[in-house]
Amino acid sequence: MIAGAWPGVGRPAMLLVPGLLLAGAVVAGGGESLAPSVPQAPIVASVEGRQVLSYELRLANRSAQALDPLGVEIRAGDSVLARHAGEGLEARLDRSGSQQPRAPGTPVPPGGEAVVFIDIAFDAADMPPPALEHRIEVGGRDADGEVSVQRIEGASIRVSNAIGSALSPPLRGGPWIAVSDTRWPRGHRRVGYQVDGRLRTPGRHAVDWVKLDGDGRRFPEGATLARQAYSHGEDVLAVGDARVAFVRDDLDERSRLDAVIDRERARREGSGNTVVLDLGDGRFAHFAHLRPGSIVVAKGDRVARGDKIAEVGFSGGASAPQLHFAITDAADEHASEGLPFHFDAFALQGRYADPSRAGSEPWSAAGAAAGTRRDEMPARGAVVVFDARH
Predict the structure, then answer these.
(1) Predicted confidence (pLDDT) at residue 303 exceeds the cutoff of 60
(2) Which of 242, 254, 267, 333 is the most exposed place for a label (fewest CB within 10 A)?
(3) Residues 6+ away with beta carbon under 8 Å from 144
(4) Which of 118, 100, 117 is nearest to 109 (CA)?
(5) pLDDT tens-place string over residues 321-344
(6) Which of 95, 219, 362, 43 is nearest to 383 (CA)?
(7) Please, are residues 123 and 81 in contact by the beta-carbon 8 Å criterion?
(8) Are 61 and 113 within 8 A, CB to CB?
(9) pTM score, whole prediction
(10) pLDDT of 13 above 90
(11) Which CATH superfamily is domain 173-386 in?
(12) Are β-strands 343-351 and 207-211 bridged in parallel, bridged antiparallel, or unpaired?
């Protein structure tokens, strides 16, 4: 079993502190301390032959003093699946609970929350356990200024295998990079939306698909126009037999690659021109940043797997011409939870350890995992080619 940034391509940089959580009082269920909870049960996804779990552990401070998360263990019975502390914990910890700037080491104030973004990858021979438990070490100061340490146990959660049937690709050909990274402060995974009093994470498994050339560039040297990007104008395809649940096609796109929109416009236009498909099994496929005027479906239409529904564009708050793609549990993306998914087939060509390097340097080899992958979700930073027959 490998713990860290899924899918476990290489071992993560993680500080392991044996015995870290063995001292201090046990506060069952959190008590008057950092109460742990997992709002969305993890669903097992297959990624490059490994079984992957990605979810969020929320820590609500129910005490009258500021508290500091010091360590987190993910457990299955007596087995420790992963342990994060020090820099390893800080790298996956949002101390504000809402992705607001907060300096490392800043305690969680009374009434505040923190979020730990957890990713665990199991080798093929080590299937995920049916349930997970958590043990958290918390530091604080009492009224006399004395440092105290508590050990909290709780947030038991069942692991789900209900990933649903495999989808067909949303695009043709390639190579395409799956741009997403759990480590980015404002990446898909770390952006939540408060709707009806509940914080949701629709981008938990979202991907921005960007087409590259053989040298890893997003557009030819010297290009200045959006339409010169390799992604722009590429067909967007239905990933399954579905009903069109939502369409938006009233936004212009930027014509130049270097065009920057102000924060207010980016907030207002968000995902830009969009199509949402109801897959009929409780899952919804979201396609965003589409080229204006390219959407060829209307709300209520039925589409078949592989049908063209639109073209890749540069609308909304996109940083470049790209296709934002996500599977969630509701038609309103902001009011939904992001779900993992499998594609029926794709060819893995390579990967970027840091997806932000795509466009400026070639990708690295995929090693033993290269070639046709079936019934899997592409890794973050994977470079893939989709079957041209779709």
Answers:
(1) yes
(2) 267
(3) none
(4) 100
(5) 999 999 999 999 888 899 999 999
(6) 362
(7) no
(8) yes
(9) 0.87
(10) no
(11) Glucose Permease (Domain IIA) (2.70.70.10)
(12) unpaired
Among the ranges 73-77, 78-82, 195-199, 308-312, which has the highest mean pLDDT value? 308-312
DSSP assignment string, 220-285: -TT--BGGGSSSTT-EEE-SSSEEEEEEE----B-SBTT----HHHHHHHTT-SEEEEE-SSS-EE
* Closest to 340 measured CA to CA, from 325, 361, 354, 318: 325
Three-state SS at 196 = coil
| Tokens 């981008």 found at | 203
Identity of the amino acid at 45: A
- The residue count of the chain comes to 390
Q: What is the distance between the alpha carbons of residues 290 and 311, in angstroms, rounded to a whole number?
A: 6
**147, 103 in Cβ contact below 8 A?**
no
Which residue matches tokens 């923190």? Answer: 114
Contact 144, 344 (CB under 8 A): no
Confirm if 337 and 200 have CB atoms less than 8 A apart: yes
Q: Are strands 338-339 and 323-328 parallel, antiparallel or unpaired?
A: antiparallel
CA dist 246 and 243 (Å) reads 9
